[in-house]
Amino acid sequence: MFDYARSPCLPQASPRRETPLGRREPTYKTLEVITYWLVGDKSLNWNTDSYKSAMFELMNMSHSVELRIIPDDEYPGSKSFLFDKAGGNTENSRLILLSDKLSITSWSYPEKTNWSLGGIVLHELIYHIHSTGLTEEANDLRSHYDLKMGGRHLPGKSQAPPFRKNK
Ligand SMILES: [Zn+2]
Fold this sequence. Notes:
The chain is elongated. It folds into two domains: 1-39, no CATH class; 41-163, no CATH class. The strands form three sheets. It has a three-stranded mixed beta sheet with strand order 5-7-6. The chain contains four helices and seven strands; from the N terminus they run E-E-E-E-H-E-H-E-E-H-H. Helix 1 packs across helix 3 (117-129). The chain has helices at residues 50-60, 81-85, 117-129, 138-144; strands at 2-6, 10-18, 24-31, 34-38, 66-70, 88-92, 95-99. The relative contact order is 0.13. The chain is α+β, with helices and mostly antiparallel strands. The longest helix is centred in the C-terminal third of the chain and has 13 residues, at 117-129. The structure holds zinc ion. Residues 123, 127-128, 138, 153 line the site of zinc ion.
């Protein structure tokens, strides 16, 4: 279930204009930002497998994680976020960046040739922010949800505080 709230327009600096006296005046443009909050379905049994339990724990921790969708060509140091990093990266325990080129499909799409927004979000949250990634391979979750498979990699050190090894 998703709920959303529109946040106020945020000012963002744009190229400065010169005044007749040569001083620079800031100009602003407005940006509309829509914020969605991920909320668990109360009627779902969250104890049927380890991935559902992990997601339940993630949604109920006091630490919040922002999932920020950015233009694909604006990932630092990369021409294509989707090509170089499968369109997702856990920057730290509070921020996951996602490419706007990820396909918006469910994880049961038949061809499994694309990285999907849902699949990458599951991977970043459960494998990198939760402690699940400390004890299993990245492809275990992908196989469980019938997602596109990827390479082996370490979970990194981005676990949120309740899931860190040395709390
Ligand atoms: Zn990863």
